[in-house]
Design goal:
The structure holds two protein chains of two kinds. Chain A is α/β, with parallel strands linked by helices. Chain A is built from 17 helices and 19 strands. In chain A, strands 5-4-3-6-7 form a five-stranded parallel β-sheet. A five-stranded parallel β-sheet of chain A has the order 17-16-15-18-19. Chain A has a four-stranded parallel β-sheet with strand order 11-10-9-12. Helix content of chain B is 34%, strand content 16%. In chain B, strands 4-3-2-1-5-6-7 form a seven-stranded mixed β-sheet. The longest helix of chain B is centred in the middle third of the chain and has 13 residues. Chain B is globular. Classes of the chains: A alpha/beta, B alpha/beta. At the A-B interface, strand 1, helix 2, helix 3, helix 5 and strand 8 of A face helix 2, helix 3, helix 4, helix 6 and helix 7 of B.
């Protein structure tokens, strides 16, 4: 019987079995940002501890950075204090920092892969639940809280319980206008927002095999939205090709040896899984969330369900979500008016996401009542997009072109919804109040669907606009 | 280890950590004072609708046991959520199930999360909503939750339970105990040693 990637990576990183029965797991790469680390560094200071392996630790700033004026000190005194704390902590503890002045700054889950820090076979931890993104490379990557950030800083290790593995096979081929975002939203709708608790999700099958690394990152990114702390794709030729020439990737002969090792840690063909799920990729359509968790979604041509359409334990939640969203059961989700369009985040803020959105808005204008933001996931993504002239396409369409950061995904910077505004968003969470207004409303969808909603002023099927584009 | 005290019921499936602690309160370099903002948006919304959120009920102030439904603490990994609950007074959480990162964070703070069957959650919630003074006790050794004549079996992953019973829920000491072993494990990893050619 063969092993899964999770099993192989777990064994390779096991330091010892703890008296509690947990595994002391070595963390190969620790990524740090400004929101969940200051208290951890303070605890280290209080206990007189150093950072155990500062050369396996990297920091950047993403959550609080303003995406318009970035002059220091920031207008928001609290954001400035957090930025200054990260700078001081990194200096004092010897942790490399990709700060605002660095060309490498960006969302932590965008820059790790970009720089080649993220590699197959690693264990990766970060004080952020979307650390699952790095699983796209065949790493075992998971989000942790601040006390665990302290543990990793102090020991480069975590005390972990074993995970089960669920393989999710996506068969067939995606139709044009259907993206990785639609695949993961459909998976979460099927398996539920708590379905992945205790599991790592292994994504496989023809659709996943054909995906680019950007697409695999979108897929793995939202594993946590399905309750799975870890999601991964087995490394293959696409993974190896992406990493070649990246700054922190091995070079020369070492790259060839690395590539061979990377492929060797993929799940064996005869590996046993704790659960297997099949998804018909060819049957997927663009998805839109109608509720207040990422499992509450519908295909763009479907109707919003009501309490009567679901089993008893879900009824109250559906009624509550519809009341908050101001949506009516039985009505088509298409045609829902939007006030704001947000393109960005660690889910969909990469170059290919911006290219797809630009393809939709090119030569079109955003509806007059819509405020639209395009926020690249990193400075490198921003520069690459500008070299292709995408910033001009967005500006000509009436969208704002911003600096890199997390921005309106969680609204810790000044980019926020106002009042009950409805936002078509390429981000990952449609929780109540998530985008900065306690009564604001979020409709999750792919970046292309956000672009289409921005142009139409309401939720619309991007496939129609794309057909028009191809036809013209 | 047994946690005994008044309890507060917080109804709802999939309560996310953005609900427990809205992101605007994460703009800080310490956890101090977070307890004042726990469930802030829900509390304001309830008040605006002329109702009262359980965390605004003076009879529930400082309750030691929090009763919740399914998948409590899903979403963001922000430890600010369990930190705020703990600072508010919560010393144990009883629910149908918990999101994984929230469970780890609460454990690291010394706040055990135990699971009971849905009907037991329903009965316990009914009890404490009826009687704010009702005493609920969570026994990690015997794996029971008791109160007002209810005697429910609870479960908890063995490792977390063992850590609470042994007093080792703060893992730092365990993890830093043998750093030579950590160094040795790191040195065995090809990506740490630079993918050097295998020795003949």
């Amino acid at each position: 019987m063969g092993s899964t990637l999770l099993g192989k990576v777990w064994d390779l990183h096991t330091v010892r079995r703890l008296p509690t029965g947990q595994t002391q797991l070595l963390v190969g790469l620790h990524l740090v940002h400004e929101v969940t680390s200051p208290q951890a560094f303070d605890m280290l200071r209080l206990r007189g501890q150093a950072v155990a392996l500062p050369d396996r630790t990297f920091a950047t700033v993403d959550h609080i950075v303003p995406t318009d004026g970035q002059a220091r000190p920031f207008a928001d005194g609290m954001a400035e204090q957090m930025m200054a704390a990260l700078e001081r902590n990194c200096r004092e503890f010897g942790v490399p920092l990709f700060g605002l002045e660095s060309d490498d700054q960006g969302i932590v889950h965008v820059i790790g892969p970009e720089l080649g820090l993220t590699q197959p076979g690693m264990t990766i931890a970060c004080g952020d639940s979307h650390t699952s993104t790095h699983g796209a490379f065949g790493a075992v990557a998971f989000g942790i809280g601040t006390s665990q950030v302290r543990d990793v800083l102090a020991s480069q290790c975590l005390a972990m319980d074993p995970l089960k593995v669920r393989r999710i096979m996506v068969s067939g081929a995606l139709e044009p206008g259907v993206y990785a975002k639609d695949v993961i939203l459909a998976i979460i709708r099927t398996l539920g927002v708590q379905g992945g608790v205790g599991f790592a999700y292994e994504y496989a099958g023809p659709v996943v095999d054909r995906m680019t690394m950007d697409e695999r990152m979108t897929l793995c990114n939202m594993s946590i939205e399905g309750g799975a702390r870890v999601g991964y794709v087995n490394p293959d030729g696409t993974t190896v090709a992406y990493l070649k020439g990246r700054r922190f990737a091995p070079a020369g002969d070492a790259f060839d040896r690395a590539a061979a090792w990377w492929r060797s840690i993929a799940s064996d063909p005869d590996a046993a899984y704790d659960d297997e799920v099949l998804v018909d990729g060819g049957g997927l359509r663009p998805m839109v969330t109608w509720g207040t968790n990422p499992g509450q979604s519908a295909a763009v041509d479907e109707r919003v369900p009501g309490p009567a359409d679901v089993a008893e334990p879900e009824r109250a939640a559906v009624a509550d979500a519809l009341a908050y969203m101001g949506l009516e059961a039985g009505r088509h989700i298409e045609g829902t008016r939007v006030d704001v369009a947000f393109i960005g985040s660690c889910t969909n803020g990469r170059l290919s996401d911006l290219q797809e959105a630009a393809r939709v808005v090119r030569g079109r204008r955003v509806a007059s009542h819509v405020r639209g933001l395009v926020v690249p996931g990193s400075k490198r993504v921003r520069d690459a997009a500008e070299r292709e002239g995408l910033h001009e396409v967005f500006r000509e369409a009436g969208l704002e072109w911003r600096q890199a950061g997390c921005s309106m995904c969680l609204a810790m910077n000044p980019d926020r919804l106002q009042g009950r505004e409805v936002c078509a968003s390429s981000s990952n969470r449609n929780f109540k109040g998530r985008q900065g207004s306690p009564t604001g409303r979020t409709l999750l969808m792919s970046p292309a669907m956000v672009a289409a909603a921005a142009v139409a002023g309401e939720v619309t099927d991007v496939r129609r606009l794309l057909r028009h584009t191809e036809g013209s | 280890m047994t946690i005994t005290g008044r309890a507060v019921a917080l109804r709802g499936e999939d309560v996310d950590t953005d609900r427990i602690m809205p992101a605007r309160f994460l703009r800080a370099v310490s956890f101090d004072g977070l307890e004042a903002h726990v469930f802030e948006d829900d509390r304001r919304a309830e008040a605006a609708a002329g109702a009262r959120h359980p965390f605004d009920d003076p009879a529930r102030a400082g309750a030691a046991v929090l009763l919740v439904n399914r998948n409590f603490g899903c979403g963001s990994s922000r430890e600010h959520a369990p930190q705020a609950l703990a600072r508010w007074g919560v010393r144990a959480i009883v629910g149908e199930s918990f999101a994984e990162i929230f469970f780890s964070n609460a454990t690291a703070l010394g706040v055990p999360c135990v699971s009971v069957r849905p009907d037991a959650v329903r009965d316990l919630m009914a009890l404490v909503e009826r009687d704010a003074a009702a005493i609920v006790s969570v026994d990690l050794e015997g794996l029971t939750v008791r109160g007002g004549g209810i005697d429910a079996v609870c479960t908890m992953p063995a490792a977390a339970r063992g850590a609470f019973l042994a007093g080792t829920w703060d893992a730092t000491a365990l993890l830093t105990a043998d750093f030579d072993a950590v160094r040795a494990a790191a040195a065995r990893l090809p990506y740490v040693s630079g993918f050097r050619p295998a020795r003949a």
